[in-house]
Specification:
Layout lengths: L1 H29 L12 E2 L20 E8 L9 H18 L9 E3 L5 E3 L17 E6 L10 H16 L3 E9 L11 H7 L16
Parallel strand pairs: 1-4, 2-5, 2-6, 3-5
Antiparallel strand pairs: 3-4
């Protein structure tokens, strides 16, 4: 009887330990740069979406930065949970690395219609998303094609909270300006429907100054 109880205790302990390890790993994956900030949405770090390692990076020359550039993915692939959003995000990074020959995914952050924000280059690294603005902007992309419809409420809420987060963390200037990607170059991004929404966002700028830096 003693041996049976001992075996039961060992097996039970093993399962408890496995659960604790799994929980710890999950928590680690969900940690964000902004976990202590009330204004910030949930931000999935690079480990959490299984990002490839960046080939190189450059720090923003001046912080906090002035511009937020809003993008959409531009292809009709949508996601409503972390697993599918992570898969699409990896495809974005693969394209930017392997086809565009950039050093990493171009955006600082990507938002899914699951309501999560996914860390790309992060707050402090120069992006590759809007020529003329890269070194003084945070590029935020919402996964999907929003030519004919808006992102859902979860994604839009995450977008606004991420901007608030940037201000609170002193990554964005309090007098920041929002522009759509099409204001920086000849493109339809962030889609006609979404761009009409962007134009009504606080601090949207009709005629942004073209920066001389990349």
């Amino acid at each position: 009887m003693f041996h049976v109880l001992l075996i039961h205790f060992i097996i039970t302990s093993a399962f408890v330990n496995d659960a604790q390890v799994c929980s710890e790993k999950s928590t680690e994956c969900m940690k964000s740069e902004s976990e202590e900030s009330r204004a910030c949405p949930r931000i999935i770090n690079r480990e959490g979406w299984e990002a490839r390692r960046a080939l190189s990076s450059t720090l923003m020359p001046e912080r906090p930065v002035r511009y937020v550039v809003v993008h959409h993915g531009g292809v009709p692939r949508y996601c409503y949970n972390r697993s599918s959003c992570s898969a699409i995000l990896r495809s974005y990074q693969d394209h930017h690395l392997d086809n565009n020959h950039w050093s990493d995914i171009g955006y600082q952050f990507v938002i899914g219609e699951d309501g999560n924000v996914y860390q790309g280059r992060g707050w402090d690294k120069v992006g590759a998303h809007a020529p003329g603005y890269n070194s003084q902007s945070i590029g935020i992309c919402v996964i999907g094609d929003f030519t004919e419809r808006l992102p859902n409420a979860l994604a839009l809420t995450a977008l606004h909270k991420l901007i608030e987060c940037g201000i609170e963390m002193k990554k964005l200037r309090t007098d920041y300006r929002v522009i759509g990607h099409r204001q920086a170059r000849n493109t339809q991004c962030p889609g006609n429907a979404f761009y009409q929404y962007v134009r009504k966002m606080p601090n949207w700028m009709n005629s942004p100054d073209l920066l001389l830096s990349s």
